[in-house]
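Notebook entry, structure prediction.
Reason for the run: the old model in the group folder had no record of what sequence produced it. Starting over properly, with the input documented here first.
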Amino acid sequence: MTGRDPLGIQNSSISLYAALLPGMTNLTLRIRYYGLYCWLLKEYDKLQLDPEKKTLQHHYNFIRRAELTIAFLMFIKYPEITNIVGHDFTVREAQKFRDEGSFNISEGADKLKSTKKGTVYWDYTSGALGQYYAGSLIALELIETSNKFFLLREKGIKLAQVFENNINSQARKTFLKVLRTGILNQRDLELLEDFSITNIPQDSSEWELYKSLLLENDGQKTRTSDNRVPSNRKETISLFLKNISEAGIEGFPEQQFQKVHSGALTSDTSFGWYYYYINEAIHYCIETLFWGMLIEIEGKSLPVHKYITDIANSITNELQVLHNKINKTQILNGIVDSMPVPNLPDALAHLVKLTKSPRQATGAMGFALGLLLGIFNLAGEFRGRIKDFENKYYLVFQKGNISEYLECYFDNNMGLSLTDFNMLLTKTIINDHIATAYRKMGNGESNLVKFVIEDGMIGHIQTMDPRFTNPRLRTLQNFLTDLGFINNSGQITDSGNLLMEEITAI
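New structure, fully documented this time:
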């Protein structure tokens, strides 16, 4: 509701990491849910019910009861495990469960027409499967939908079977009894431990199938403009594990950026992460300028022209302080030529530090502009490849791509003085935000504009901090940890080393 992308520039990053890590999202955080959902759909198909009773509501509530049952199992038996569907609800209700010795799963899970928002574990009608996991399961060709029902595909049937093979018959009977009766007893939990969402027996058929899902190519729907089906997920896994073995769990995109820039990596996948890091840096710089502009009018109402002029002059003055050879009447082309190529990870880390304090907003804006000029030179070394990559992965159609900013912000304005350029830059950011906010609002009533302009005056509504996107790496780490390729301390295991060798050999 606050408008997480106030300038409408993050789609290029989101589309890119979706191409680099398909089949998972930032909200599909445990891979065994893939097997659980396939098994549930298999069991639902086996239910001996009259066709008229197999309604969409019945279908969804069967899944919802299962999600809540797993949530109680994980919270009571494995409280150290995070990223479990329905966790917050079980935290609230766990003491009641312990006191009474049982819990009415149907009341906590079933979504009826009369159900009030916030009274069940999950408000979205089709549960976390429908809201979060279905997209990944469909992308991996495990399930499909028909008339809003979830249906297994051939690969999904196979995954359901290998999942079932790792659940003893008593556990399966107990779990299905809970779904049928809607009551979960404490003693049931002792019988359900095979359903632990992180209990994937290594080298089992289930484990092997998850592994093969991660290592197969990215699927027909990911075809590039040159009609190739990529294997970016598999290659990202290899790069990620290698990064862990060399430098630890932190700094994956930064490491790929540095390696590609030094010429050590040449694949589409490694270049994709290089592109992602530069793209995020550009976005953070632009959002820093917007953040500083909003801070400047907090508690004020200023004439628009004066406000734009003052902001442009402030940015110019700060840039002159940082680079004392720059003159405000100097033509942008000469300034760009004199700007050194930055050490991007260090410079970006410094900018992030500056944006932690509103008192440093003006300095942050000047630094952000200087960094944007430096990135122009840095990316200039790869301009042709950047353009080719954008066309290949259809990023050219996404607002906020690197070429758009290099061209619209700099290439087209090289003849302007620094002051005139900063005036134009300020106006562009204002216009981009207004256009983005109104587009997102559509016919809704929520106001996403962060300032109001009326009668030639501009006033403050809300300040938005600059932010990065989240490129699914937390999900990838969870998946690799659940499968035993990374240990709980974030270190690569022997299995992880073998996996790297296997990927390299493929």
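Summary: The radius of gyration is 26 Å.
The old model has been moved to the deprecated folder.
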